[in-house]
Description:
The chain is an alpha+beta fold. The chain has two helices and four strands. A hairpin with a 4-residue loop joins β3 and β4. It starts with a helix and ends with a helix.
Amino acid sequence: MLKQQELHGKAIFQKLVGQIRWASTAICLQFTEASHVICYVEHFANVFSTHVVTKHFSLVNTPKQIMQKLER
């Protein structure tokens, strides 16, 4: 089940931002009314970085910041 969600998230993520060579796994956590997509992008060594994808790309540096955004 989780694998299907990961694949679905990856497909959505790639559709939004075009071809992403560095995204091995993208799990979309939340869609907001402003069409923001919060994704976890898996990198080597199980280190996760997070990105908020909008028309302009902005980087969310830490999981703590992501949780703060989700709580709003």
